[in-house]
Amino acid sequence: MTDAEVDDAGRHADSPKKSWRERLPWTTVVPLVAVLALLGVTGRSLGPVANVIVAALLGASVLAAVHHAEVVAHRVGEPFGSLVLAVAVTVIEVGLILTLMSSGGDGSKASLARDTVFAAVMITTNGILGLSVLFGALRHDIVYFNAEGAGAALATVLTLTTLSMVLPTFTTSATGPQYSNAQLAFAAVSSLALYGLFVLTQTRRHRDFFLPVTPSGDVVDEDSHADPPTTREAAISLGLLLASLVAVVGLAKAESPAIESGVAAARLPATFVGVIIALLVLAPETLAAVRAARRNRLQTSLNLALGSGIASIGLTIPVIAVAGIWLDGPLILGLNSLHLALFGITALVSVLTVVPGRATRLQGAVHLILLAAFVFLAAVP
Fold it and tell me: How far does Cα 70 stand from its chain's mean position?
């Protein structure tokens, strides 16, 4: 045996064999199993045991989506990584809204888009932002972010929400809190234009505004603590991310009869279904944002939170406006007085949080209390 053969044999003998868990981790298995389960439950009524299994797969799919989103984000860098998850989740959210609206049913379907999108705005600006600030500050005392990027994103969220859901309450061309066809077309085009301009600003013209910063204000362009994944690994994670998100929303749709029955049994308003949909769909982004905040990357958390709010309105409203041509019944977008008050205080508090460029656990707690008030008053209006 030659020296090269001896070295090769020794190298193979010394190298540890990977276990099946290392070769096929749970983050790979869960999305595939969840998609198969989705195919099995689609179009069928679920019993109690099946509902429990689907709920467990739903939660596991959320965790898998977070893992693969972080892999993709590490490969492409910020702010593109945050954009990937925000757009993917929003596209599937739109599909879920359209599916439920087209299924007919009670009159609450006319306001499902408004209820879901406004819940998404409140969850992103108060829930994801509040949790990120709180968990980041608990570990690092004071958390820092780029006020220019966060301020631009917040201004876009507030403008989109006002155009799409505040103004319809006060217009007079159509009966009730809804737009006329011309007004809806204007709102849809404006929303899409604002979303496009925001993405261009975030990824091209002023990308540095949306990168993490140090306490001294220096921009952190890339994570230096670990090598980025290979292109092949990132491509696999992107595919598994999309599979996880499809499974999350699809299994949530399969669970929707149980959710609606539970809402009715608990004597909650039918509009509370929109809040539950938004909570389920935004769960992956919430976990990803909290993890980033704990690593002292609050700007990444804000990119996820505010970017999700922008995508939720900027993509949903134009699609719903076009789909309204085929959907029967009115499309109610205007907020009621209670929601207007909550949106007003959220806008004010968010501005005060973003302007300094740094935050403490107090700001996080304030936002979380506002979210708790929104969820509670949605259940007990």
Answer: 14
